[in-house]
């Protein structure tokens, strides 16, 4: 397998993160214009929480810097140790697909149990990815 291939899921996650970031700006600026919120009045997170009522995109953007950090590291570890095979790549793409689903749910209709299932399944895919890499490193 070409070494670059294992980083395509990372590229997809970066695109997802950028899309959520753009959504965050669109929603925040829209609310600030609509509600006439002065930027200085939301200078701290406490002030922002009190005035900016639409937080789905912001919440999701923060989520994209939690478990995905371990995902990015897993891809680097796999690439550096010759563990970037079909199974590893499949688990990586599964994680990406589930994170896309999670983001779509959270930034969209935000049904908590649907979002939880996508999150939990993505977490499981990530832990399986790490288990596969761990076995490869230890054998």
UniProtKB/TrEMBL annotation:
<keyword id="KW-1133">Transmembrane helix</keyword>
<keyword id="KW-0472">Membrane</keyword>
<feature type="transmembrane region" description="Helical">
    <location>
        <begin position="64"/>
        <end position="84"/>
    </location>
</feature>
<feature type="transmembrane region" description="Helical">
    <location>
        <begin position="90"/>
        <end position="109"/>
    </location>
</feature>
<protein>
    <submittedName>
        <fullName>MAPEG family protein</fullName>
    </submittedName>
</protein>
<feature type="transmembrane region" description="Helical">
    <location>
        <begin position="116"/>
        <end position="138"/>
    </location>
</feature>
<keyword id="KW-0812">Transmembrane</keyword>
<dbReference type="Pfam" id="PF01124">
    <property type="entry name" value="MAPEG"/>
</dbReference>
<dbReference type="InterPro" id="IPR023352">
    <property type="entry name" value="MAPEG-like_dom_sf"/>
</dbReference>
<feature type="transmembrane region" description="Helical">
    <location>
        <begin position="6"/>
        <end position="26"/>
    </location>
</feature>
<dbReference type="InterPro" id="IPR001129">
    <property type="entry name" value="Membr-assoc_MAPEG"/>
</dbReference>
């Amino acid at each position: 397998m070409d070494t670059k291939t294992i980083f395509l899921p990372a590229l997809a996650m970066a695109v997802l993160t950028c899309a959520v970031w753009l959504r965050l700006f669109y929603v925040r600026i829209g609310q600030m214009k609509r509600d006439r919120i002065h930027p200085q009045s939301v200078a701290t997170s406490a002030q922002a929480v009190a005035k900016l009522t639409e937080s789905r995109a912001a919440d999701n953007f923060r989520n994209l810097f939690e478990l995905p950090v371990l995902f990015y590291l897993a891809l680097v570890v796999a690439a550096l140790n010759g563990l970037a095979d079909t199974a590893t790549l499949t688990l990586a793409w599964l994680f990406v697909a589930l994170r896309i689903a999670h983001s779509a749910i959270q930034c969209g209709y935000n049904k908590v149990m649907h979002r939880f299932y996508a999150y939990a399944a993505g977490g499981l895919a990530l832990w399986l990815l790490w288990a596969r890499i761990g076995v490869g490193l230890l054998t």
